[in-house]
Structure formats: C-alpha cells, structure tokens
Write a structure and sequence with these properties.
With 395 residues, the protein is an all-alpha fold. The protein has 17 helices and no strands. α1 packs antiparallel against α6. The N terminus is likely disordered.
Length: 395
C-alpha cells in the first residue's frame, strides 16, 4: 500500500484547468492556421509543421526540469516563472516576421507552457491521496478537454476572418491572463516535508523512477495511448484541406468532435475510478483505442476515406485515450510519493517525446498521406496495451 500524503492547500479548480490547458491550447489553436501560415510566410508544409514538432520537443525537455525543481522550490514560484516565459514568447510568435522567428518563439513558448502541464498534475496529487487522485485527474481531464476542443474552432474562424496571426495573439493573451490569476489566487501546495526530500538531485530521482517497471509501464503506455494522436493533428489539416477540400473554419469543427471524445473518455474514467480495478479500466480504454485505429486504417485501405470515416474512428480512439490517461497518470505519479513533481515531469517527457517521434514519422514517411497516420495510431494502441498491462501487474 502506498503511503498516504498529507492533504495540502487546495488550488482553485478553474485555475488548474487553465494552467494545464495552456500547453495543449498552444498545440490545438494554431492547427487550422498551418496552411495559411505556410502560404503567408512562403514556406512548405514540412517547414511550418516544425511549429508543432519543435513545440512538442520543448514540452518534452522542459518537463524534465520543472518537476524536480518544483519539488525543491515549490509549485507557485516555478509556475510564475514558466508562465512569464510562455506569455512573452507568445507575443513574439504573434509578431514573427518569418518562419524561423516563429518557430524559435514557439520553442520558448512550449518551454513555458509545460510548467502548467507538469505542475497542474502535481498540485492535484499534492492535495489528494492516491485512491482519490484518479477520480480528480479524470475530472480535470474531462473539463480540460472542452478547452482544446473549442480552440481549433476559434483558430479556424480567426484564421478565416482575421488572419493567421490571430490565433497566436489569442494564445499570448490567454497566457497573460493566466499568469495574473496564478499570482493572485494560487497557494503553495507543496508541504514542507516534501520540499526537503525534493532537494535530492534530478538525476537520482529519475534513475529511481526509471528503475521501476510500474512507472515505465504507465509512462510508455500512457504516451502510446495519448500523444500518438499528435501524428494525426500534425497531418490532418493538410488532409482535410488539400485531399478532402474542406475550409479551415470547418476543420476546426472536426477537432471539436474529436476533443468531445476525450471528454467522454474522461467522464467515463471519473465514473469508473474506485468502481473498477485499474487493470480492467485500462483494458477497456485500450480496446476502444485499438478499435478506432483499426477502423481508421481499414477506411484508408479500402478507399472509403471521407470526413465521416476519418473523424468517426479517430473520435473512438480519443475516447479510449481520454479514459486511459487519468489512470496512467495517477499510477505513474504514485510510484514514488516523495518525488511527485519529478514523476509528473518524467511522465510528461515520455509523453511528449513519443508525440515528437510520431509527428516525425508522418512528416518524413509520406507527408500529407493517411496511411502513415493510421499505422502510427494502430501500432501505438497495441504497444500501449502491452505496456499498461505490465504496469498494473507490478503494482
């Protein structure tokens, strides 16, 4: 039985949603604008997709730092520093004169955004015992899924009626508002005894976590089930707009449907937490993801690809991802109660690192084609099933 942590001060739930959502907002809002951005800056699809790929790289690398640093110095000061960087880089990206400046600004924006991804999860775990954290993280996933669901719709209409820079300005403004709210309303949730143990080196914390088969299973399984979706996000705007000839504002609505799948999965996880064993819940979640990825691959292989046969199966995949994510995160950050921040950061690094790998695969294999995307989703769902099964056997 894992040791129970003392409950710390509670952060406002709406603020946790905003903190955690900023990283994914930076991904989703600009997706409908990618073709227009490439045309305006005079670059190809492969070049402008670096605004997504390198954003993921920044999210991955930054999470290795934020977790242990927050274990040492506290959640609040680290979040304030991270969101200051996110906001400043966001305004630079919005005013970028060329693709190189935009991509560099996006990297710094991601380095700031990942503070919210790491520490939002850590703050939930600070104030809850392990047996309650899965339900609370599932609720956070459910509510948070509405934000990136709406983001592509806003980005699509902003691009169509204002221009490609509009999405970047909205992201920067949202970061500035979140920074102010964090300064005013966020308490420090890290207990004094946790801060003392967080003084251990990052290297020691990561070695200890990587030596745990349970942690590795949850981290790899969670990554395969969730961030493999970034392969679809990177390639799909070009598939929708160039192959299926859909306008950017309509593409944003398709992503709304997909993110509703994440919300449905999160709601299911919230209802199942405490009622089903994690092993059973994760098997159900992965079965849904595998079914969705298989159907999507078959639609492409049989020549029946259209908007419905593309959005429908991927939405089912996202239901499975939304359902699996809270159980995988809770399992990963509960492996070592003395290093919750480090575990959250390392988990996020594995997630985003795998997302980078998936986007690189679809961008270099056959850019703009459906087959590589379908292959990545199906292969990831199968590997995720095996990794999560290993994790639950080790707990």
């Amino acid at each position: 039985m894992l040791a129970r942590l003392r409950r710390g001060p509670r952060a406002p739930f709406a603020l946790l949603v905003a903190l955690t959502a900023c990283g994914t907002l930076g991904m989703h809002m600009i997706i409908p604008a990618l073709p227009a951005t490439a045309a305006a800056l005079g670059v190809g699809a492969g070049t402008i997709q670096l605004a997504i790929t390198l954003y993921l790289v920044g999210l991955a690398i930054g999470q290795l730092v934020y977790g242990p640093v927050s274990d040492r110095f506290g959640r609040r000061p680290v979040l304030l520093a991270g969101f200051s960087l996110y906001t400043a880089a966001g305004f630079v990206a919005a005013a970028a004169p060329n693709a190189a400046a935009l991509i560099v600004a996006r990297v710094f924006q991601s380095l700031g955004a990942c503070s919210g991804l790491v520490l939002g999860r850590a703050i939930v775990r600070d104030a809850a015992t392990a047996d309650r954290a899965a339900g609370q993280l599932a609720l956070l996933t459910l509510v948070m899924s509405a934000v990136p669901a709406i983001a592509p719709v806003i980005g699509g209409y902003a691009t169509a009626y204002v221009g490609w820079r509009a999405s970047y300005f909205v992201l920067a403004a949202f970061g500035a508002i979140t920074l102010v709210l964090t300064y005013v309303f966020l308490p420090e949730t890290l207990g004094s005894r946790d801060g003392g143990r967080g003084a251990r080196s990052m290297f020691y914390s990561y070695v200890r976590l990587l030596s745990s088969r349970a942690f590795c299973g949850y981290a790899i399984g969670g990554a395969c089930t969730t961030t493999s979706f970034y392969a679809f996000m990177s390639a799909s705007p070009f598939i929708f707009e160039h192959m299926l000839h859909r306008p950017p504002q309509e593409v944003g609505l398709y992503y709304l449907v997909l993110m509703c799948g994440v919300g449905l999965g999160g709601l299911s996880a919230n209802r199942l937490a405490g009622r089903l064993r994690p092993r059973t819940a994760l098997r159900i979640a992965n079965a849904l993801a595998i079914a969705g990825a298989t159907t999507f691959a078959l639609a492409d292989a049989t020549g029946w690809l259209n908007v419905a046969s593309m959005v429908g199966p991927v939405t089912l995949f996202m239901v499975g991802a939304g359902m699996a994510s809270p159980f995988a995160i809770t399992g990963a950050v509960s492996v070592s109660p003395q290093a919750i921040g480090a575990a959250s950061g390392l988990y996020g690094f594995v997630q985003m690192g795998y997302g980078v790998f998936c986007t690189i695969v679809v961008e270099t294999w056959r850019p703009g084609a459906v087959f590589p995307v379908a292959t990545v989703l199906l292969g990831s769902a199968l590997v995720g099933q095996a990794a999560l099964a290993m994790a639950v056997r080790r707990m």
